[in-house]
Structures are given as structure tokens and as C-alpha cells.
Amino acid sequence: MSNSPTLFDPVTVGAWQLPNRVVMAPLTRNRAPGQIPTAIMATYYGQRAHPVTGAGLIVSEGTPVCAEGHGYSDTPGLHSPEQVEAWKPVTAAVHAQGGHIVAQLWHVGRISHVELQPNGQAPVAPSAVRANAKCYLIKDENGQRSGGFVDCSEPRALQLDEIAGVVESFAQGARHAIAAGFDGVEIHGANGYLLDQFLREESNRRDDAYGGSIENRCRLVVEMVRACCDAIGADRVGLRLSPVMEGNGAVCDPQAQAIHEQLLRQLAPLGLAYLHLIEGQTGGARDHKPFDYAALRAAYRDAGGQAAWMVNNGYDLALAQQSLAEGADLVAFGKAFIANPDLTERLRQGGPFNEPDRNTFYGGGDAAKGYTDYPALA
Ligand code: 8OZ
């Protein structure tokens, strides 16, 4: 135990020398009207980027890689030249502090609404199975912006000959991320969005090469990860997974363990920077469903995989230290980073911690309230 690293020790992850093992988890905030990053986002991320007081690595909020990838109002994209330009001050603010930031590449798949889709079309998904879930829609009526959760629309199944285009949109997202000054990307394979929809049988009813067997259900994720590695180098690519998460229409797959072990065995030779595991129910119980994360890591390591192992969900300092002692390399904190720009310093000192205000998690435009106004320690 005494020889295991602490959260505050540096670590090499892929192409990056990180000053500590505290990661800021991706956090959707819906504060980018018109899907364009704003100036205050640079302040927000910059506040959390200091190598001593802040995150060793920041994972950006989910950034859709194409117009069809949006499922919530005011989430900043990474598919237009304007968006790439608008991200530059954000990544510059992080680098000015000495920090590191990757872009989380996102496609919501069926977690969307026709009003958020180009030309009001149906969202795309592995199969035409509607998610029993909500997405977030801000309606502009007479200049009034009001937000709310609405039922997801019925999706249409991606045609076989459209899949290469979706894979390419992730590769383009990775290239755009580098052009925007990000240090790399995290592919969002979690939480019931497009990639996760392909992994699970409830949402994937395909009978072609992308559905049915476990190998087929993993195919899209493997192709996307490969495409991003080819685009920017594997040592700048991470992948986030949530093997047993339920919600967003997703139900726990009866073969969750086998699917994820197969997936990671296939990814092992690629040389990824990191794998990011949400343990249990995202934002909820860590023991939500039985799953053997140690066996998953062992399957990956046995196949030669060397990516840093990032863990997430409900961590405090003691649990984080225990996880590092058991073989994790990085620990991601979400809600705590909303309320504590200097979370790493507060963990080091044992607190105190500001409490996050749920009322200001989502939306708020460019207002500082609940975004950049949480105080740092004196
Ligand atoms: C909260 C609200 C909207 C989206 C995720 C991208 O769960 C999200 C998300 C979280 O991964």
C-alpha cells in the first residue's frame, strides 16, 4: 500500500505528462447557445486547469461530432469551422494555466428529438427502437428561452452504407479537436448514446455485420477508436465506457461482462492513452449491477493493453487512494469539479468542499452563476 501512488503524484498517460492523477470528468452544462463555445467557458475550464490546485487532465463536456449527433440544446459541437475557432480560447486558457484538456467526442444516436436534428429529421440509431428517455430542448419563443426535458423521438436505423460516414465524423472530430488546440480526445462510448446503443441488444436489433453477435456489436466502437487513432495518434485517444449503466433508455445487457471484455481485448493492440470506466450506475449506486471491473482490466492487460486505467463514479479521497492501490491510474471527479475549481487542492487538504447547486447544472447561457462563481480556497 505504501508504495502505491497517491492522487497527487504525476503520471505519464499516452502523449501527456500529467502533474497529478485527478481528472475532471466530462460534464454537460448546456451553456453554448447555437452550439458554439462561449468566452465564459474559457474562464470555467481555465479555473480548473492549474497543475497543483486543479485537474491533471480535463475531459471536456460532450462535443457532438456532427449535426446529427446533438440531442440537447446548447451543447458545443466540434463539426463546423466556427466551432473549432470558438474552442481555441478554451484550450488556450487551460494551457495558459499549465493544464491538459481532451475533447469528449459525442454522438447521441437515438437520444435526440426531431427539433434538434437537421431538417427536423428522425435521429439515427442502430435500430428503429425509441429510447424510453428524455432529451433537453430549449425553445425560443418570442425571444424567450425556456428549457425542459422532452421525450426522445422515434429514431431510424442507420443504413449499412451510412456507417462509414459516422465513423469518419469521429475521425474528423478528432482532427478538429487537435486543430482547436485540444491535447487529444475521449470517445464517448458510455451512458446510452450511439456507441453504447450498438453494444447493447435492447437498442441494437441489426442482423448485419454491426449487430447480433458480441463481436458484431463491438464492431462500430472498434472502428471508431481505430479511425481516431489513425487520425491523431493512439497516444492522444481515450475511450469512456459505462458497462452496466441504466437510463437514457439503456438497460443492462445480460452479456455486459462478455461484451466489454471482448471489446477491450480487441482494443488492446491499439496503444490507447486511457480507458475511462464508469463503475455502476452513472451518478448513482456503484454496486448498481454485478460487474467485475478487475476481471475487465485483467482481460485487457492479458491481451497486452497498456492504456492508463481511469475510474469514475462517487469517488472520495479514501476510495480513490484504494483504487490507485488496486491498479487504477487516474480517478475522474464530476459534480465535485462543478463546485470546486480547486478540487485537487481541497482533496489534498481534506476539504472543505463547496456543495454543487443542481439548479444551475444545465443551461444559464453565459451567466457566471453556478458556473464560474464557485470560490476557490483563500
Ligand atoms: C447529463 C445531461 C446531458 C448529457 C452523459 C453527456 O451522461 C451526458 C449528459 C449528462 O454522458
TrEMBL record:
Residue stretches in coiled coil: none
One term of GO molecular function: FMN binding
Matching InterPro entries: Aldolase_TIM, OxRdtase_FMN_N, Oye-like
Highest taxon, organism lineage: Bacteria
Domain annotation NADH:flavin oxidoreductase/NADH oxidase N-terminal: ranges: 7-351
Gene Ontology cellular-component terms listed: cytosol
Pfam families: Oxidored_FMN
Needed cofactors: FMN
Keywords assigned by UniProt, alphabetized: Oxidoreductase
PANTHER family membership: NADH OXIDOREDUCTASE-RELATED, NADPH DEHYDROGENASE 2-RELATED
Family statement: Belongs to the NADH:flavin oxidoreductase/NADH oxidase family.
Protein name: Alkene reductase
Organism encoding this protein: Malikia spinosa
